[in-house]
Amino acid sequence: MQNTGIEIEPDLDRGVVKKLETLSSLASTYQIPLEKLNQTISRYNSFVEQHQDPEFGKFIRDYAKPLSSPFYGVRLWPKVHYTMGGLKIDVRGRVLGKGDRPIIGLYAAGEVTGGIHGACRLGGCAITECLVFGRIAGREAASHTQVPS
């Protein structure tokens, strides 16, 4: 395997990544039509040899190598990474209900709330929001808690 700096042995050991010697075994393991897989690999390898991908107008660097055995496969599928929206809160972290009235005793903070992102989420930017509103909501909730005597 070309040294990419990526450590895959633990994933091979767990069976998450599979090492396969032929395109035929790769195709059968992952239920990929073999003819299409062969065409795709051949097309990619020709792009590497030409140092360009005319389909997408990409220049391919000299360090790119044609794909050859062994082949490594991993099953991937789409999943939800983030959803926009959430509970509406006020500046004290209280969850708002109908008519924008606070729901007594219900507080929220962080990415479970409607948030401050607007129409586009910027990854990693919610940390401050989580910390600030977590602290505010925690203090607010604690101020309404009765300590047993």
From TrEMBL:
Gene3D superfamilies per record: FAD/NAD(P)-binding domain (3.50.50.60), Succinate dehydrogenase/fumarate reductase flavoprotein, catalytic domain (3.90.700.10)
Residue intervals of the FAD-dependent oxidoreductase 2 FAD-binding domain: 31-126
InterPro entries from the UniProt entry: FAD-dep_OxRdtase_2_FAD-bd, FAD-oxidoreductase_2, FAD/NAD-bd_sf, Succ_DH/fumarate_Rdtase_cat_sf
GO MF entry, a single one: steroid dehydrogenase activity, acting on the CH-CH group of donors
Cofactor: FAD
The keyword Flavoprotein belongs to this UniProt entry's keyword annotation: yes
Keyword terms: FAD, Flavoprotein, Oxidoreductase
Full protein name: Succinate dehydrogenase/fumarate reductase, flavoprotein subunit
Source species: Moorena producens 3L
